[in-house]
Amino acid sequence: MTRDYSVVYQEIEDGWIMATVPELPGAVTQGKTLQEARAMIKEAVELLLESYRDHAVKEVPTNAVWETLRVEIPTP
């Protein structure tokens, strides 16, 4: 499954680039270059979503029904 996220890059102190994903609180990282910040935010999002999924699986009762919901989200 793929999903698109908006990433905001901004220069911070000492020329570092901070990357955030507004739709995912906690998805924040930085890199010395834009290319490094891109790689770091991709990894941060993957790890954050994996953590959310692992937590959700542990918290759901064994008799619960799982299904996939697909929604279209307009881009700004």
Distinctive features:
single chain, 76 residues, alpha+beta, elongated, 1 helix, three-stranded antiparallel β-sheet, 3 strands
Q: Sheet bearing the most strands, described? A: 3 strands, antiparallel
| Helical content band | 25-40%
| Low-confidence runs | none
Structural class: alpha+beta
Please give the number of β-strands: 3
Radius of gyration: 16 Å
Which geometry do the CA atoms define? elongated
What is the arithmetic mean of pLDDT? 90
Helical stretch count?
1
Share of residues in strands: 15-25%
Spatial strand order of the main sheet:
1-2-3
N-end to C-end Cα span: 22 Å
What is the N-to-C order of secondary-structure elements (H for helix, E for strand)? EEEH
Layout of helices and strands:
Elements: E1 8-11, E2 17-20, E3 28-31, H1 34-59
Antiparallel strand pairs: 1-2, 2-3
Summarize the entry for a quick read:
34% of the residues lie in helices and 16% in strands. With 76 residues, it is α+β, with helices and mostly antiparallel strands. It has a three-stranded antiparallel sheet, with helices on one face.
Structural write-up:
By secondary structure, the chain is of the alpha+beta class. 34% of the residues lie in helices and 16% in strands. It has 1 helix and 3 strands. A 3-stranded antiparallel sheet has the order 1-2-3, with helices on one face. The protein is elongated, with a radius of gyration of 16 Å. The mean pLDDT is 90.
